């Protein structure tokens, strides 16, 4: 691998990884240069560091060249030469910054990995630095260590927080934070281990393992509850950090291991942080993988070209690298290595007899081993356990995502009920959906039509919701291989994450938008004021995101990660994610100065730090006040019922149902009635407009006349319902209050309740503000006659559109 830098400009090159290599090596690095005489000279790599969040790797050679590799973008580039360096580490809370320990003046340099600019330099060491690490609990605490000293830095003010000098005593062999950052652990060359409490830096324990001689390395599990110790003696000790006692001692001679140079646990998915695979670099430069539960060596890596000098494991265990003695770097994908190790064990396992008939295959399927496996899977798929895994790794593995989502949503696998919906065929509302969306894959289009049709047959409301295809499309792309799981997953999401979305359908979900606005007002009033100044409502900065399930604003990988978290948390988490997206993108949003620019912003993918995005979502979920928290209005999670049919969707808008049924009965008795439903609605609205234009005394008469109109409307429904007993029975629970609900619906559309907006308005005392934002204000009884007249005029048009839409849908059904 060779590259060149042109001044301060970084030139990036394409990178090609091996796809599922047999030995797990996805990439091999070597740096070769040509001398003036034409001879090639290979420069040895010395150190490396992973950054799992962005799939990055930094490697440095012994002359100071630092190479950055981006596995997701498949690119690599070289930073400017800082001189020979002895340690590298990415900054956890600033992923573009790399910390480099140089031999020049023994400095610790902070470098921007995109521009190679030096942003900070720390000095104070008297020997070359061998170790750099950050605390997980205190993001501003940096630990740097050389064999003779260790320094804890406070990065807020760039000062030394704690210094450990060993000039007059045994030198430091290794020093590190425990994964939980509760302790600081140092291993010294006199075979002692010293443990300090991180908060106070007071010594809490000293361990002197009598069996170990020439102690070289210690390692911790991801949950920090167990420690492994080893050295040049053929002994491995596992130590409990909870009880401060040794758990077990392992004789390494039975594995032909005479000593250990380096230890590290390999985190695996679904192990909950209590890692059981331990990597051991032996004295003869061979890397062994030991299962500490079964005490078996499951795999070993011994490159033919050269022995292994050191190895580095990424924080999540996704990758690891081996720096060979000749200077090359082999980069491994851990899952490929584990799969290869498993297949190798299976090949060496003796097989007495293979089932050769259908009877024997059935016996194998119902064997006790299969039952045990299913039981273990149920234990592994426990929602609390899955959530711990998610919080540790940040996402679920692609390989098991569909299984995990199925477990989180508790889908019943009702094959009979699903078959009934499929047999109804394509719903008339979605027969020509390809004219609305450009879908190149015929398979995807077929699956989308089938899903939407099943939803519409399950609940007629889903046949008239225009946003539904955009909402379900990303789920189709992810789960289309299992149509049953796809339908039940989307149906469960509509039941839970989409609560209160359809109470005013086909109008916007006023309650949901009010909740989001109140949360934004509590946590970032300035951003809300910016939206109001531009006349931007929650329908732009919230509803646009919700109706597409975040698919328009996030990349595919970001969307999958977000929905891992949405499905693993309470239904309110989705609304918090909407607010979080706006707050994290605050700097970009405040630079937009027009309504059109903001609308465009929420219809395109914008770069976002997914780690900050998710972190802010959890902060909002936990720190939002109870009086405006969505969980106050949401019901607990409800799964689909298991059986021969699915339960009825209860989030149906009752007012819309009664309007539609009244429309059907009107068509059947049109010849005998004096007024049609459309004419009656128009006459009622005209009376309302006239009454509102009168004085306050006349407004009382308006209420009385409205009651008269409602009675007339009820009598009209009663006369019509006599001709169709079946429809009357279906609407029995809602018919008596259909008019009241209709007028409540229409009033709430114009005056949505928003308690917090009054509160924030009083706090700021902004009495002279001329901003008008319909979704940012609560209802008021002191509205001017002119404003009321305009609203009623708009109201009349909306009702006419609604009735016209249902008229068309009724004809299509007939």
TrEMBL record:
One of its GO terms (biological process) is cilium assembly. It is found in: Cytoplasm, Cytoskeleton, Cilium basal body; Cytoplasm, Cytoskeleton, Microtubule organizing center, Centrosome, Centriolar satellite. Keywords: Cell projection, Cilium biogenesis/degradation, Coiled coil, Cytoplasm, Cytoskeleton, Repeat, WD repeat. Residues 670-690, 716-727, 787-814 have a biased composition (Basic and acidic residues). GO terms for molecular function: molecular adaptor activity. Residues 756-768 have a biased composition (Basic residues). Residues 700-715 have a biased composition (Acidic residues). It holds the Pfam family RabGAP-TBC. Residues 395-570 form the Rab-GAP TBC domain. Residues 670-814 are annotated as: Disordered. It comes from the Eukaryota. This is TBC1 domain family member 31.
């Amino acid at each position: 691998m060779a590259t060149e830098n042109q001044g301060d400009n970084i030139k990036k090159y394409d990178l090609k990884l091996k796809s599922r290599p047999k030995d797990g090596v996805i990439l091999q690095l070597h740096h070769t240069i040509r001398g003036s005489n034409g001879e090639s000279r290979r420069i040895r790599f010395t150190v490396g560091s992973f950054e799992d969040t962005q799939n990055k790797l930094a490697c440095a050679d012994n002359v100071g060249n630092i190479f950055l590799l981006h596995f997701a973008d498949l690119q690599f580039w070289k930073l400017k030469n800082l001189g020979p360096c002895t340690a590298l580490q990415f900054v956890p809370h600033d992923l573009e910054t790399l910390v480099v320990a140089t031999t020049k003046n023994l400095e610790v340099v902070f470098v921007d990995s995109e521009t190679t600019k030096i942003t900070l330099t720390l000095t104070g060491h008297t020997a070359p630095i061998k170790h750099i690490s950050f605390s997980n609990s205190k993001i501003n605490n940096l630990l740097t260590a050389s064999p003779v000293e260790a320094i804890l830095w406070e990065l807020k003010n760039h000062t030394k927080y704690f210094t450990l000098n060993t000039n007059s005593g045994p030198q430091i062999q290794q020093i590190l934070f425990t994964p939980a950052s509760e302790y600081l652990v140092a291993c010294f060359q006199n075979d002692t281990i010293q443990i300090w409490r991180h908060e106070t830096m007071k010594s809490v324990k000293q361990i002197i393992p009598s069996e170990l001689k020439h102690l070289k390395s210690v390692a911790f599990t991801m949950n920090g509850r167990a420690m492994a110790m080893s050295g040049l003696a053929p002994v491995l000790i596992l130590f409990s950090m909870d009880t401060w006692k040794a758990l077990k001692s392992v004789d390494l001679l039975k594995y032909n291991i005479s000593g250990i140079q380096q230890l590290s646990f390999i985190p695996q998915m679904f192990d909950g942080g209590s890692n059981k695979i331990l990597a051991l670099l032996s004295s003869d430069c061979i890397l062994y993988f030991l299962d500490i539960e079964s005490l078996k060596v499951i795999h070993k890596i011994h490159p033919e070209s050269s022995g292994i000098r050191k190895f580095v494991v990424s924080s999540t265990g996704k990758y690891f690298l081996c720096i060979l003695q000749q200077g090359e770097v082999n980069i491994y994908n851990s899952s490929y290595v584990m799969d290869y190790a498993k297949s190798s064990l299976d090949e060496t396992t003796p097989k007495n007899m293979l089932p050769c008939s259908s009877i024997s295959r059935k016996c194998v399927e119902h064997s006790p081993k299969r039952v045990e496996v299913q039981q273990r899977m149920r234990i592994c798929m426990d929602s609390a356990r899955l959530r711990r895994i998610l919080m540790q790794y940040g996402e679920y593995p692609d390989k098991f995502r569909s299984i995990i989502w199925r477990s989180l949503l508790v889908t019943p696998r009702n094959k009979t009920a699903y078959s009934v919906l499929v047999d109804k065929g394509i719903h008339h509302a979605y027969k020509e959906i390809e004219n609305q969306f450009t879908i190149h894959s015929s398979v995807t289009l077929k699956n989308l039509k089938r899903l939407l049709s099943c939803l519409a047959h399950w609940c007629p409301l889903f046949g008239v919701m225009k946003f539904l295809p955009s909402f379900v499309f990303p789920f189709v792309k992810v789960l289309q291989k299992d149509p049953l799981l796809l339908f039940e997953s989307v149906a469960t999401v509509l039941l839970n994450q989409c609560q209160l979305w359809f109470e005013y359908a086909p109008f916007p979900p006023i309650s949901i938008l009010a909740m989001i606005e109140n949360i934004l007002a509590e946590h970032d009033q300035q951003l809300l004021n910016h939206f109001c100044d531009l006349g931007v409502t929650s329908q732009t900065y919230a509803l646009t995101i919700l109706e597409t399930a975040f698919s328009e604003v996030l990349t595919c990988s970001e969307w999958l990660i977000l929905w891992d978290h949405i499905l693993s948390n309470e239904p309110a988490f989705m609304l918090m994610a909407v607010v979080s997206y706006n707050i994290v993108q605050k700097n970009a949003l405040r630079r937009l100065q027009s309504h059109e620019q903001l609308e465009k912003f929420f219809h395109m993918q914008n770069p976002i730090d997914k780690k900050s995005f998710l972190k802010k979502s959890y902060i909002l979920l936990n720190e939002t006040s109870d009086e405006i928290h969505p969980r106050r209005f949401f019901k607990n999670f409800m799964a689909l019922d298991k059986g021969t049919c699915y339960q009825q969707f209860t989030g149906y808008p009752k007012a819309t149902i009664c309007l539609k049924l009244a429309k059907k009965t009107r068509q059947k008795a049109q010849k005998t009635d004096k007024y049609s439903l459309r004419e009656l609605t128009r006459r009622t609205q005209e009376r309302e407009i006239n009454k509102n234009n009168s004085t306050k005394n006349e407004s009382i008469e308006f209420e009385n006349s409205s009651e008269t109109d409602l009675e007339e409307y009820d009598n009209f429904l009663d006369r019509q319902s006599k001709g169709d007993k079946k429809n009357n029975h279906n609407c029995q629970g809602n018919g008596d209050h259909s008019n009241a609900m209709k007028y409540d619906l229409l009033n709430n559309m114009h005056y949505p309740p928003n308690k917090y907006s009054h509160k924030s308005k009083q706090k700021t005392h902004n009495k002279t503000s001329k901003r008008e934002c319909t979704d940012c204000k609560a209802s008021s009884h002191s509205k001017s006659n002119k404003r009321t007249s305009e609203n009623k005029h708009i109201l009349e048009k909306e009702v006419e559109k609604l009735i016209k839409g249902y008229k068309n849908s009724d004809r299509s059904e007939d």
